[in-house]
Amino acid sequence: MRKLRKGDLVGRISYNKDVIFEITNIIKTIDNKEIYILKGITDRIEADSPPEDLELMDKRLVNSKIKGIEKKILNRIEKCIKYEEYNIKKRNNIFTFSNNEKRGDTLAYTGKILHLDGDRRYSEKSMKYYKSLGLNAVVKNIPENKQAIMVKKLLDRYTPDILILTGHDGMIRKGTNFNDIYNYRNSRHFINTVTEARKWNNPKAKELSIFAGACQSYYEAIMLAGANFASSPKRIMIDFIDPLIVAERIAMTDKNIYLTIQDIEEELRDGRDGVDGIGSRGKRIIVNNE
Q1: Does the global pTM surpass 0.90?
Q2: pLDDT at residue 99, as a whole number
Q3: CATH number for the domain whose boundaries are 85-288
């Protein structure tokens, strides 16, 4: 069998190849052994592994998993459209679905989203998701360790109502040292970015809604830094689409309604085990068009 290299899609034998990873880097240890750095292609997790525990994944299985993500996105979009069509009729022909659309004598604006994602592939899928729903969103592919440096500049530029911070994460020693920030691969970067975002000097800053985190992230510390929602209370893997659902629901909820985790937990893959928070006021504004 050929030597594994960057870009290969692999599974970890010791974990029964439960997650498909891409090899993103190969590093040498002090005793000249190789360690492979891995990022999930269907889950927001980062890990490392010795090469002997890795096996190339069958292309048919990989394609099936990727198609599964696409199907999940399409199903979610279809569900949202049906939900909003129902609400249009319920609200006496007030159009509430897209960012800036007329219907009757009203104009509806959904909240503006700024999404920073450490993974290029997920950034592209996230933008596709937001655009399909007609949401006003800007998605930037920024590595987790650069997000804290960039966030205030981007907040100033785009003045969003909602900030989503995600990418990859994971516990280095799973199941132990829950309160050790250095036991998490990227949680400290999410914490630092939330902290910087809360220093934003803008009239909209006080009402900025923030989601931050990825798989197995240090939930409590991210919340203490100032997030409205975060992952992962039970230190489990979260679904790719979970942060997008949080962003979408805040953006599409009327400003006079306070959205809680109880309102959305059934829409998330693992409910409050994967995502929790203190909630947020909705960001949709309906204006009389006179």
Answers
A1: no
A2: 56
A3: 3.40.50.2300
